[in-house]
Structures are given as structure tokens and as C-alpha cells.
Specification:
about 270 residues; Recoverin, domain 1; two-stranded antiparallel sheet; 16 helices; about 60% helix; cytoplasm; EF_Hand_1_Ca_BS
Amino acid sequence: MYNDYSMTYLSELENYILELIPTLPQLDGLETSFHSFYVCTAVRKFFFFLDPLRTNKVKIQDILACSFLDDLLELRDETLPKDVQEANWFSAPSALRVYGQYLNLDTDHNGMLSKEELSRYGTGTLTPTFIERVFQECLTYDREMDYKTYLDFVLAMENRKEPQALQYFFRLLDIEQKNYLSVFDLNYFFRAIQEQMKAHGQEPVLFEDVKDEIFDMIKPTDPFKVTLSDLILCGQGDTVVSILIDLNGFWTYENREVLVADNNDEAEV
């Protein structure tokens, strides 16, 4: 038996989940050929959130303390509603969705993603500057991204409010690796948003205005530097990240009052 502070390694957790698959009725429909991809998808969530330093090992007590194991074992329930399954990262529909997205992005069918292929992720509005940083900082093979690296990317994109996701983005935004974001960093990324706005025939928003709004949202301890701690503690780190990396995210922020009004109108109907 492990004690509370024992570690489990990547390969051990992979073996555990592979052996668990036959005991989970909700995974009965998975083809055997997909099992290795399922294990990879499931294990990645544990390590993305519980192994931020990427040591390929996590504490057993951390696994037991988080909800991930509960989410996984929830798949024993044969009557699990469809909406609950879709919201559960470990469910068959969720794993197939993520893997299906990867295959759809892989237009040259070489099993890897290039920068151009990844740029089509989601609404296709992530900036080239951000995509470039992903490929500079994340593990790639001959400048292409494999499925494991893609899973980290998806987990960050789909959980932007979480500290581990904000840590992922902070590493990309901190282009000089100085452990804080300066006005230069913010301008560097927002310039790509301005260029996308021009390309769509929109009048670019002034950086000075956006910079002031970002600092108002974060309220950093040092008025000229944004640390990871500032980004996490402000409670709006996900909004700040979206403004800097995604034209659609920036548009949503800029039109937030209109969108709220529209949602209220729909609720009253």
C-alpha cells in the first residue's frame, strides 16, 4: 500500500486506468483500438492539474483529494444522463469529442498538428502570435504537436479560470521569462488582436484603453508588473487571457454589456 505521500508515476496511472476500463459500463462502447487514446486523454487531466512542474509523477494524496477519481468512477453508473456524461472529461462522448477535434484539425493526416492546423482550433480566431508562442514553449516534434501536447492545450483552453490553466497561459505570455508581464508583453500580444480586427474590416481598439482596463481588472501589487499570483487572485484572469490571445474572446469582452442585455431579454421571453 502507498502511504499518503507516496507518488504514482505516469506509467502506473496509465496501467491503472487501462485495467479500469472493463469495469466501467459507460465505456463499453469504446473500440479496443481507441483504448490507448482514451487512457492518454484520461491520464492527461490528472497530470495537467496535479503535476504543474511536469515531473511525470503525482502524489497519491492529491489524486484522492481531487474530484477526478470520483468523476472517473462515476462511469460505473449505467443510467448516467447524457448531459452529465458530456460534462465529464472521462466519459466516452467527451474523449471521442476531443480526439475527433484533433483528427479534424489534422488535415494532412500525419498524426501531428502544425501551427496552421492548430490555428483552426475552436472558432479559428486565436492569434498567430499566440499560436507561435504555443509552439515555442510546448513540447513539439519537428515543429509539430502530438496528441499529448494537444491535450494540455485543450485542458488549458477549456478551464481558463483554473490556476493550473492560468499558469500554462502565463508561461506563454511571459515571452522574456522574467516571471511577470509588463506593458510590453501585453502590447506584444494585443497588437495581433488589432491586426485581426483590421483584417476583418473593423476599427482597431487602442492598446492604451485596453491596457488600462486590464490593469484595472487585475489590480497588481506592482502597478507596472503582473505576476502569476496577481492573475490568479484577481478572479478575472480568464478574461484577461482571452482578450490577449483570441479575437473572439476580445469581441465577447468588448460586447459584454450587449450580450448580457440580449441574455436578459431571452430570459424574459
